[in-house]
Amino acid sequence: MSDKLTKYLPRMGWIQPVLGALALILLWAFAHVAQLVDPVLLPSPLESWNAFVEGMTEGTLGHDFWRTIVRTMLSFAIATLIAVPLGVALGSSNKLYRSVEFLIDFFRSTPASAMFPLFLVFFGIGEEAKIAVAAFGAALIILFNTAYGVMNARQLRQLAARVMGASRTRILWDVTIWESLPQTFIGLRSGVSMALVIVIVAEMFIGSSDGLGKRIIDAQMIFNMPEMYASIFAAGALGYVMNMLFTLIEARFVHWGGK
Amino acid sequence: MTRPIPPKADGADLSPPAEISAGGDAPAASGDLADRLRWFAPGTHITIRGLNKTFADGTVLYRDFDLDLPRGKVVSIFGPNGCGKSTLINMISGILDYDSGQILFDGKTARETKIGYVFQNYREAGFPWLRAIDNIRYPLKFLKLSQAEKDARVEKLLASFNVSIDLNRYPYELSGGQQQLVSIMRALVIEPEVLFLDEPFSALDYEMTLFLRDKLQSVLTEMQITTLLVSHDLDEAVELADEVLLLTRKPTSVAARIPFTAPRPRNAEITVTPEFIDVKARSLEIFQREVRKT
């Protein structure tokens, strides 16, 4: 018996990462069957899964899912376009960085949700406010990390390029920006997560007609719990996949990171 | 930086007075600053005049320092810890500013001169985002050469080093010695007028060091590049050198210049010849004398 186990276990290596998830689902099913929690608040895993599949295939979950992706990616793209060049500029000038360091730190520490009303005043209750506030939150993280990466670029490589005859601009393009990429990518990865968080919250509270946030809050209000769990799961899956995609892109683009 | 009276690049009409030796310390006696700045021995490539460097904490490293360095020769710089060997070659190569004085290569500044520099820390000097071969090619983009000429340069260099490493790998995929070999080739591909080596082998194991020393030695003999080597290893300093330049404690001056004229190519076996032993013993004596001074 134990022989068989040692023979088959290595082949079952793939099962390890899903063990935790399986355990959670089993616990959930047990709590549901044993009625540890009011069944209205805690439907069975199967009910929730069915709500997810139905919502995705026949219902509007797919649409809401897509709207949230679009908003997140749009705000992330805007944040990247603004924050990366700005971060490089800030990082390459000590004086410039010093003069805005406090501002960046201050707004980075301000919860983006606290800025909702401000953005509502400026952008109205439409699509723009949601995207702008998410872009704002993501941009600060990206900006900070990019500037940090540029500032902390190893000096030796810049000296090596300088001694070859590279101009300051050339050094910035050929060395410093590359050197800062690992840190910039950390900023981008945190930025896309931040954008998703803010978009979901904005969909909940800044009069939205679609999106996962709106769907979750609607389901909660009418106690449609399977629907709510399905939407939460969709949001979680979205965040997870985005993070995973970024890790893949990062491993490809900054293959030298940490080496 | 002040640049008083740049000497003419063309030394033909500047044949120096006979009493000035290659040591370059004679003109100070003449007292005439203009003369001291202008004259240098025939065969001189790099002239350093009135160099001053004080660190931020007030430590005076170089005060009114003069030095002439010969063309096409390998000069090893050796001296007590903290006397500023690396600082000196960093100032000459133009990657470190100096307070005042003048450093010229045939009358040109460092920016106007093709310079190759091999750093001790190959891990932080190479570009990890470029493949090894692109690291080697990189400095060629600062030369006005056609693509064909650039390719020919690289081919020629690879042939003279005759290396068997896969240059399509990234630097971090190579061993330390291979990375330093890539650094050396990156420094040499532009066919520099001056090559600086800052303890290039001190982070490598002995086997790799011997191998790289031999390679470098044969290529330098072939290319006849003015070379400045900083080394902590006296055997290495002497073996590679045409001349050993010994420095004093700071404020730094030249303690002695000892020529080593054994024929090239040399290898580790030269270290048992009487001539080598003599040069090394004299260098060591001066070195120890300088170290004991407080």
UniProtKB/TrEMBL annotation, chain A:
GO BP, sorted A to Z: transmembrane transport
Keyword set includes Heme: no
Domain ABC transmembrane type-1: from-to ranges: 65-250
GO cellular component: plasma membrane
SUPFAM superfamilies assigned to the protein according to its UniProt record, in alphabetical order: MetI-like
Keywords carried by this UniProt record: Cell membrane, Membrane, Transmembrane, Transmembrane helix, Transport
UniProt-annotated location(s): Cell membrane
Keyword set includes Secreted: no
Pfam families per the UniProt record, alphabetical: BPD_transp_1
Transmembrane regions: 69-90, 102-125, 131-151, 186-208, 228-249
Membrane topology: Multi-pass membrane protein
Organism superkingdom: Bacteria
PANTHER family xref list: ABC TRANSPORTER PERMEASE PROTEIN MJ0413-RELATED, ALKANE SULFONATE ABC TRANSPORTER-RELATED, MEMBRANE SUBUNIT
Similarity annotation: Belongs to the binding-protein-dependent transport system permease family.
Protein name listed in UniProt: NitT/TauT family transport system permease protein
Organism: Pseudooceanicola antarcticus
UniProtKB/TrEMBL annotation, chain B:
Segments for region (Disordered): 1-27
Gene Ontology cellular-component terms listed: membrane
Gene Ontology molecular function terms on file: ABC-type ferric iron transporter activity; ATP binding; ATP hydrolysis activity
Record keywords: ATP-binding, Cell membrane, Ion transport, Iron, Iron transport, Membrane, Nucleotide-binding, Transport
Source organism, top-level taxon: Bacteria
Keyword Nucleotide-binding: yes
Domain ABC transporter: 46-274
UniProt xrefs under PROSITE patterns: ABC_TRANSPORTER_2
Full protein name: NitT/TauT family transport system ATP-binding protein
PANTHER family xref list: BICARBONATE TRANSPORT ATP-BINDING PROTEIN CMPC, SPERMIDINE/PUTRESCINE IMPORT ATP-BINDING PROTEIN POTA
InterPro entries per the UniProt record, alphabetical: AAA+_ATPase, ABC_SmlMolc_Importer, ABC_transporter-like_ATP-bd, ABC_transpr_FbpC, P-loop_NTPase
